[in-house]
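Sample intake sheet
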Amino acid sequence: FLLQLVKQVPDAEKELQPALDAQAAVADVDEQIAKSKGVEQTATADEARCRDNVKALKGSDGAKRFVDELNQAEDRLQAARKQTSDLEKQRADAAAKLDQAIGGLSFDWSESETK
């Protein structure tokens, strides 16, 4: 529909561009959130694996290595969660800008102008 509109009303593209740019920004943040959540999942799995290893090796010298890895996994998990939280705030801002851009759209033409 939008492509047809742009063909019929050349000024429409200029009007729509801010909304299209805002939509692209939302999509970009969504992609970053998905990646961050993937990092969270990996860190969670690493943390669980390290916990299991620490339990299995409890009291042995090998357990220290996995305690260190567990600490690193926990740090990665916390960082990923913070990043996801920050990105979700950015997404809310980007969505608000998109809503504003859509709300600001105004087309005023007569049907004879579109032919």
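Comment: The helical segments are 2-8, 10-56, 62-103. The chain is about 85% helix and 0% strand.
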